[in-house]
Amino acid sequence: MAISAPLALYERVTRKNTIPRAVELTILFLLLSLVAYRLISLQDHGFTWFLAFVCESWFAFTWVLSVSTKWTQADYKTYPEHLLQGKPELPAVDMFVTTADPVLEPPILTVNTVLSLLAVDYPANKLACYVSDDGGSPLTFYSLMEASKFAKLWVPFCKKYCIEVRAPFRYFSGESSLSRDVSLEFQQEWKKMKDEYEELSRKIEDATNGLMPFELTGEFADFSSIQRTNHATIIKVIWENKEGVANEVPHLIYISREKRPKYPHHFKAGAMNVLTRVSGVMSNAPFMLNVDCDMYINNPKIFLHAMCLLLGAKNKDTDFAYVQSPQCFYDGLKDDPFGNQLVVLFEYLGRGIVGIQGPFYAGTGCFHKRKVIYGLSPNDEEIKGSMEFTKSAGQILSSMKTSSPHELSSSLEAAKQVAGCSYEYGTLWGREVGWIYGSTTEDVLTGLTIHGRGWKSAYCSPNPPAFLGCAPSGGPAIMTQQKRWTTGLLEILFSRRSPFFLALQGKLQFRQCLAYLWLMLWGLRSIPELCYAILPAYCIVTSSHFLPKVGEAAFFIAAAIFITYNLYTLSEYLRAGLSVRAWWNNQRMWRINATTAWLIGTFSVVLKMLGISDTVFEVTPKEQSTNEDDDHNANAGRLTFDRSPIFISGTTILLVNLTALAVRLLGVGFGLVARGEDGPGIGEVICSVWVVLLYWAFFRGLFGKGKYGIPSSTLYKAGALAALFVHFSRWTSMI
């Protein structure tokens, strides 16, 4: 009798993108032609020509990085049904949820994320959920205690009726209203669940508003004298599945790591390392999932999809270190007015990276192999550096096997020890083991280090999407997030873990190195973006030019680049099922982010390198949104402002270009035409108008009120800079 071969758990699917490749190469050829033309004609032109040459050389370089990254797009198709047939004994998974501030990250968001994790389609006796609270908040702990009571009703309800959306606030938001053809039993249980969730929400809301229904005694005694940056470790087993029942509620553990002023905390990376060690002592699952507190599970079978990739490798060459799901968002405004839903980014560049060495680690929605986080390379048999772990937890942490069932409370003392501030002293944690320190984007740095050891990673994008989160809304929140990303990415670029060094000295593939460079050069790109945004205005004010004249052949090269690039990027959005308006919103926000948040992030890294200041991890404010009428709000998608210096550069760019267009309209110029020089052509005027359109959100801010208006202090500073620019332009035109 023939023995059938084991069923494949996944397959790699390569996308056909012949036409996009041809267009991208055409744009590259045009860019190189324009750069070459500028180079050979530098002697016949002035400063503006040289500056345009430098900027366009940079744009050509970043386009090369983009083309390389998108060249071999791929995806993975998983077969969970094969997994259940071939591997009935599923491996254990430790689930990590991180939160840092109960004000910026409301506990009700964390609760919904935790409830969706506890109700996932996976044996409960194989799961443990750890919540890291870096805010050390009794409110967060109280919310989780109340959530655990609700979970005992919610988890069986979801599994009994195969509920798809298992975050209650989304399930009961109106999108899942009862249909008429459901059973009476289901209607009654649905009503009961809705009432129970509303009661849970009311309790958490009352506690959030200061109506604490508890005193800081008993279970809450550890919070009685807590200071946010100076307190002992707090670990609480909120719920334990003591009987190990597969249909029960998984373990739920609360952790607030020790913090002392004299010890560095390393932001989220430090919290993740504490979660890794504490879970290693208490449950020690071979796989770990980490999600942000606002990123709930949207596909209850995602664990099975991920295990197909993590368990389906046939040899070490196809073994994956981690499985990353794309970031998707709920309640996104129509046409993505803030350009932060990242749909096209993941659709093309994301899948292009999948076709090389694997996707970047995005910091949330990612399944990790514990042995990889502990520092293993693909061909290692034992963990390097494990001898430096303290004696109390060394054997458990280095065993790489799921510990035998035991009461979690018996591990509390060892867990508190590995969560202490001094535990990492003299070890490789944060350097070679765990989440890597040294950047505010610890996720990219950790993923880069793992790829540098020779590991590959996989992309898991089932339908429906695996995880959904809330994208930042308004201007300040978006800019804060973009600034933090830029700062962290530049910190990596100028560190010893730069993609350059890992490609030369490690096992980072060359094209993967180029993909990382495309990402990490965002900050430096702000400089040529800024120069190119004010160059047309400078030429108009000084009656000079930086573009070839209409009669020159090179003019058609510049025009072809402009038209081809915009049509091609528009086609990407249309192919992804998005609208023309979504394309335009993303184009303008890309330029706005580049010349505001990215620019400030670059300056902060320069100041850090000069020893003048240090970078700070800024938590992005998160809010629970279920308002279906947002798209009909007159101010929906309108950029908001505050007094942050991050908005000064964008306002200055707008004022400079408005001044230049006024100069052109009034026929006022400075000097060069009068001396017989070529003045600005139609190209410079078109470019200046294009810049004003890109910064139209700032134009509206000039006349807006409240948070929709640019603050007067920002206007004064930007106006002074614009006047200084005009004065400088006039001075240079007279030299």
Task: Please describe the structure with a list of short key phrases separated by commas or semicolons.
single chain, 735 residues, alpha/beta, Spore Coat Polysaccharide Biosynthesis Protein SpsA, Chain A, 2 domains, eight-stranded mixed beta sheet, two-stranded antiparallel ribbon, 25 helices, globular
Assigned CATH architecture of the largest domain: Alpha-Beta Complex
Q: Based on helices, strands and strand pairing, what is the structural class?
A: alpha/beta
How many strands, which pairing sense, and closed or not: the largest β-sheet? 8 strands, mixed
Which residue ranges are poorly predicted, with pLDDT under 50 across at least 5 consecutive positions?
Answer: 387-393, 395-405, 626-631, 671-677
Fourth CATH level, the homologous superfamily of the largest domain: Spore Coat Polysaccharide Biosynthesis Protein SpsA, Chain A
